[in-house]
Amino acid sequence: MFYGSVVWDPWLIVAQIVCLQCLYYITLGLFLSILVGTRVSRLSLVYFFDYVAITTSTITGWCVIASFLLSSLAGAVYVFYLIERSKKCLDFSATIYIVHLFICIVYGGWPSSITWWIVNGTGIAVMALLGERLCMKRELQEISLTRFRSNV
Asked: Which domain holds residue 41?
């Protein structure tokens, strides 16, 4: 990790966004299959992209909410390993959720449920703040200079 002058590389940024988005949905699918898949007869894309599935009125809805929040925790770890800069955590976290919003609009229409907005707002906050905290912790570690000294 060398943080000198960074050259702007749009292909790297796009690759990081695609990689984070894929990891987010893989993790969400894993948590949905564990928490929701045991409760329903057939797991479908409704639980991923339809705002109606995120509800507090059923146990299955609470399982969907837990899946989204656990995915945001995992997303913070992904940001920590793939992005490595605390200044970029909010940008990449917001990008994941903005892309998710667009997919949800295409799939099920504009999310009109306040629960959907609260869950996704909490998810972006958790991902950005925890990812930033993890990155800051690494950035503030001492740099060991013993490996650069010559044995004279």
From this structure: 14-21+30-137
